[in-house]
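Researcher: Last one for today. Full complex below.
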Amino acid sequence: MKRKLHHLIGIFALALIFFACKKEEIRGIEKEEKRLMGTWQVNTYKSVTIDTLSQQVLQSTSLTDVGTIEFIPGGGDDASTENFFKRANFHGTIATLQPCGYFRSVSAGDPINDGWSIFWDADPESKRLLFWAVTGGGGVHQITTLEVISAGKQKLTLVTPYANQLNFVTIEMSK
Amino acid sequence: MFHQKINASRYIYCCIALWAAFIPRSAKAQDWPVTTGLSLQVGANMYTSYNHASYENFRNSYNAVNAYRETSPLGTLAPTKNISYGAGAHIGPFYLSAMFHNLDMSTSATFKNGDKRLINMRYRPIDMNMDLLFPLGGRVKLGMALGAERQRLTVISGYQYTYGITSYADDKPLNGIYRLQMDYAINWGLRTDIVLIKIKDREILTLSLRAEKVGAMEKMMGLDRYANPMHDPMTYNATMGPVSSGYGIKFLHYYLPEDAHNANNDEVYFNNLQHNVAGIFRGWRFSANIIAFPLFKRLN
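Model: Here's the assembly. Have a good evening.
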């Protein structure tokens, strides 16, 4: 009886250990990747530039239904395949707008039918999204702030500071 | 690197588990009722004199750098009360339990133009406690509380623009989400149990009071907290790797500089050449837990 109890306690403790020690951030990244996979319709795109001194709006653009962003999983262990890294395929007008427009402007990423393809990485906290691409001179990246509104709805925000100006780009997407 | 950490932590906890499971065989337990059982517990915690030295260094330097434009400085992160829950098992005087805690702390600095620096610290420790309790007489037990804790400490640093947007991206230096890597702490203190409900030999409900020093051995072990600073899991694990740009774009930020004077020094974020925010929480935690024993048996 005592031996059984000892074993029971040991098993109980080991189960707790497993739960306590699993690498949380890797688990979080995998969960976020799963959430992002698939095609998102870009419902609205809004770009606002303000003067940081006067807080006046200098320029504002608002567009609706500007294409899709397709999040594709990486290709596994075969580094020779072009889909080894996780890809974000921007289709339609959104491919010419920020943040994808930035990668086109520095010739980073790959052209695809009616769009542009770059790479992405997920944040285990679901608060940001990292886009990146490789150029001849190295790599470039853009980190966007992510807001998960519901299971099928999310908002990306990119803030770009200039001298005395701030540009806010907000993209609302739904699945 | 991650696999190494998993293996090391499993090894440590396995040793502790085996010790807890087999030590009771040698206990001379005829002098008091030897019982065994499984337990569920829920409790309230109160933290006092908590200290995260590295964050305090960051806070002081941040306020020094931004004093000219702050209308309210970045404040301390004052831990408050919180709830914990867990489960455990005991045999004889050895009480093994796992406890989960949730604690969020936040503060902000406000600037003259209305912008804000937001700091949120999330503390979600998992405690593995191995306590030694002896009956004092009547329904009271007293003993030593000893625990190993994974602190699971995260600092979320954001910037709220007057325009209404809050950003965690790299449009502002110091933005990011940073997690403690080497987050193990040793806690020790005292524990007193008072049996509230008892039917014959069987304890049904117990009030357990703990006073423990969290992170008690950090100084004693002489660990260099800066060797493993808090890191940003997204950029740190990014497949892009440590790639800089030929287009004047910043490095990916891995760490949060402890000295805010280094806010625009990419090398600090990237290579940990100077101190970055690091280290465990230390301080006193007082807790009151109600423990129920759905399985309980007297062995002698």
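The mean pLDDT of chain A is 88. Chain A touches chain B through 59 residues (CB under 8 Å).
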